[in-house]
Amino acid sequence: MYNKLTEKDRNILVDGKELTIMLLEDNEWDGYYYELVSSLCNENMGELRYIKELVSRKLDCNFPLLICDCDCDFNCTVAVAKVKFCDNCVKWEKIGIVTGTNRGNSRTFFENYRNSGIRRVEDWAEDDWQKYGDIAYDLIQDDYFFHDWCSKNWQEELYRRCWGYYHKYFNDDLNISWASELNFKFEVKEYQKFFCGESI
User: Could you tell me which of 81, 98, 88, 118 has the C-alpha nearest to residue 166?
Assistant: First the structure.
């Protein structure tokens, strides 16, 4: 039997019941879950693109499921679900809050985050080398050139930072305070339709 995902007032409903209410009933982290909304409310188009791509590519991961309703991005409180894709279903195994434990100080975080996008040439695909290969040196070595590129390609840069920084951070379980065990199963096509707007 599959669970049913719907949405109401920016909240995720599982079988007609708000996920945040279910979480509040199940653990003591009232202050964390109370003000969280669906990650589909993300106002950062690069981060929203990343969220949808995780689902469309059927990646097993710690999926950013809920975000702070004030910031509506990954810069504030984020709750992740441990997601596993099977042949015909998607499972949520547990949920937890992303912590700042292993981020280091603010300067270290800023440097790591700033250099996790287009500057991570080790993550470039062949298409990237064809498109940006002639400016790779300037992107890495010239801060003025890099900032100018970012100002013209900001959403692309944010999307790349999701993969280069947030994806790695979210998927290191040492950065997650796991709270609730879950046993939800969703039919893959319906799940993709919910998060991506259509079946993949």
Answer: 98
- The arithmetic mean of pLDDT across residues 135-150, rounded, is 96
Q: What is the pLDDT of residue 23?
A: 80
Identify the CA nearest to 57 among candidates 185, 169, 167. 167
Burial class (CB in 10 A: 0-12, 13-18, 19+), 125: exposed
Residue 157: predicted pLDDT: 97
**Residue 153 phi/psi, 5° resolution?**
-135, 40
Distance in angstroms (rounded) separating the CA atoms of residues 109 and 153:
22
Find tokens 């042949």 and name the residue: 87
**CB hemisphere CA count around 6 (13 angstroms):** 7
165-192 average pLDDT score: 93
Helix (H) or strand (E) holding 162: none
